[in-house]
Design a protein that fits this description.
Elements (H helix, E strand, L loop, with lengths): L1 H23 L5 E9 L2 E5 L2 E3 L4 E7 L10 E7 L5 E4 L3 E4 L5 E12 L7 E12 L4 E5 L3 E3 L3 E9 L4 E9 L10 E5 L3 E7 L4 E10 L4 E11 L2 H27 L36 E9 L2 E8 L5 E6 L1
Parallel strand pairs: 3-9, 11-17
Antiparallel strand pairs: 1-2, 1-4, 4-7, 5-6, 5-8, 8-9, 10-12, 12-15, 13-14, 13-16, 16-17, 18-19, 19-20
């Protein structure tokens, strides 16, 4: 009998404690947490999330006395982008498709038993969604001129502000550890000026990070001579070559001594003789003219006919 009384007293005391806990528990307490998984990496986020990354949003209940261990919960998630989800689990999978500022609202309801008053809790959190850095690209040509101030444009695909660190390495190697030039970037594109002092291949190492991601890349750059320097070298050489060719042309076209004698054709069927003719004046003839006609009669014979206008005509014949 005494044993039954003692058990009844303990049960009543436990019910009093449980009722007292429910009386003092006016709402459901807890906090929100975010877990993002990208590839094999897992990130625990607070108020800043990466866009287009699968996200697990979780409500962590605060119940040190286990008062709500048998309660039935209901969760209503409003992500602030027009999407609302409802369920009985303390977590939900969702991801933001674009960057921006959003307000997340969660309403939690707990029902301990049929006779108890439902407990509720409403949580609001401002969330910043950023685009992670997924690409670093060097815009424009990858060939530059030596000893000249060259301008390079670099585009970083991610949400600013971002910290960008860059350095140049000759032959893409460094004998000693070198630092980098650190720049705060408030836009996606920035320009840097650099003068290359050596020919050959160089590497531009760039690392960028924002509040949710980081990325590092390297670009190969070829440094060549200035074309104007090559032109200054080629023009004098061309002038020297042209002068030499002109000198050779003048020497070749100059006539040689002793070789300007007239040449007689080697082929001839006629024999030429010098003919001495004397013309006697004649009073009756006002004008005297002569024509020398050479004809080929036979092989080895030349007939020469001297025609005179007047009264005389003499014919001469010569044979070899």
């Amino acid at each position: 009998m005494y044993r039954n009384i003692i058990v009844l007293v303990f049960v009543s005391f436990a019910l009093i404690l449980a009722t007292d806990g429910l009386i003092h528990l006016k709402n459901v307490s807890g906090k929100l947490s975010f877990i993002q998984r990208e590839g094999n990496a897992t990130y625990v986020r607070d108020r800043e999330l990466a866009s287009e990354v699968p996200t697990e949003t979780k409500f962590e209940l605060f119940d040190p006395r286990n008062t709500l261990r048998t309660a039935k919960f209901n969760y209503t998630w409003d992500f602030g982008n027009g999407e609302v989800l409802e369920g009985s689990e303390p977590y939900v999978h969702h991801n933001y498709l674009s960057s921006g500022n959003y307000t997340l609202r969660l309403r939690v309801g707990a029902q301990v038993n049929k006779s108890s008053t439902p407990l509720t809790g409403v949580y609001t959190m401002d969330i910043t969604v950023l685009d992670p850095i997924r690409n670093i690209e060097l815009k424009g040509p990858l060939s530059f001129q030596v000893s000249r101030n060259n301008s390079l444009a670099i585009h970083v695909d991610g949400s600013p502000p971002m910290w960008v660190c860059w350095r140049f390495l000759q032959n893409c190697v460094s004998a000693t550890p070198t630092g980098c030039h650190l720049t705060m970037l408030y836009d996606n594109t920035f320009r840097l000026n650099h003068t290359f002092t050596a020919l050959g291949v160089h590497c531009l190492d760039i690392s960028a990070r924002n509040d949710i991601s980081k990325l590092q890349t390297s670009n190969s750059i070829f440094v060549r001579r200035d074309p104007s320097n090559n032109l200054l070298f080629i023009l004098p050489c061309a002038g020297i070559i042209l002068a030499i060719l002109s000198f050779i042309t003048v020497i070749a076209s100059r006539p040689k001594k002793g070789k300007n004698k007239p040449q007689v054709s080697e082929y001839s069927n006629a024999t030429y003789y010098s003919i001495k003719m004397e013309l006697q004046p004649h009073q009756d003839i006002p004008d005297i003219s002569s024509d020398l006609y050479v004809s080929r009669a036979e092989k080895g014979e030349v007939q020469t006919l001297l025609l005179q206008h007047g009264t005389r005509a003499d014919s001469y014949s010569y044979r070899n």
